[in-house]
Amino acid sequence: MQIQVLFFASYRELLGTGAMSVPLADGATVSGLVAELRARGGSFASLPAFPVVAVNEEYSPDDRVLVEGDVVAFIPPVAGG
Amino acid sequence: MFTAIVTEPIRPEAVLKSLASPEDGACLLFLGVVRNHNEGKAVSGLEYEAYEGMAERTLSDIAAETSHRFGTDRIMVLHRIGALRIGEVSTAIAVATPHREEAYRASRYVIEELKQRLPVWKREQYEGGESRWVGSQLASDGPRAHEDPELHGPQAQAEGAEAGDPPIDDGDGTE
What we know:
- The complex is a heterodimer of chains A (81) and B (175).
- With 81 residues, chain A is α+β, with helices and mostly antiparallel strands.
- Chain A has one domain (2-75): Beta-grasp domain (Ubiquitin-like (UB roll)), CATH 3.10.20.
- Chain A has helices spanning 9-15, 30-38, and strands at 2-7, 19-23, 52-55, 58-60, 71-75.
- In chain A, a hairpin with a 2-residue loop joins strand 3 (52-55) and strand 4.
- Chain B is an alpha+beta fold and 175 residues long.
- Chain B has 2 domains: 2-134, Molybdopterin biosynthesis MoaE subunit (Aldehyde Oxidoreductase, domain 3), CATH 3.90.1170.40; 136-165, no CATH class.
- In chain B, the strands form 2 sheets. In chain B, strands 3, 4, 6, 8 and 9 form a 5-stranded antiparallel β-sheet that branches. A 4-stranded mixed β-sheet of chain B has the order 1-5-7-2.
- In chain B, helix 2 packs antiparallel against helix 3.
- Chain B is elongated, with a radius of gyration of 17 Å.
- Chains A and B meet through helix 1 and strand 4 of A and strand 4, helix 2, helix 3, strand 8 and helix 6 of B.
């Protein structure tokens, strides 16, 4: 399956991209996605092991099982206000 | 209730206009304003970035919670994104209630929830040209991540944060 991944602010600048599509095995979780990205090495290895993520615009636990078409956003520490 | 992420300057008088109903005796406006210093450094400006879809949704959720908790639907919340200069308004929260107590509590609820949950990020521009994302934990972003490991180290997210509870930036550039 293909998962759409979004990066914002410091993560976007770290990786040099704001969006990418990541192929994952069916049944993969948020944790699996994070591990897959970090294993790519280079700047991806600098992503936190336990980042805050949102799946389809809602904060989600890292054991959430992903399905085709999900949009996973990596959320750096927020600083609104 | 009205909430929005905006790119144009926020005009406070427009925020308050027509908010209150005849039953309201209190109408309260909070403005978050860009200040010229943070943690001892001279700040020359800010740039806000948002995950716009989620941020719009989060503001709407917070307004609905506020309405439910404090018994008023006269609530307006705006957050501006893009480049802001010193003194410009980044956040406007307006609430109207029959009595002042609920207005103060409702306004406070909105700003505290917004600071914890709203997917918005802030890059501070300093006098001299340097800049950084406030609260970033990436080592490449400078020394801040190491200054206060309790709050900002990688452990804070690994151990402290539950889903739906992102770490709080306490080094705000506004208010």
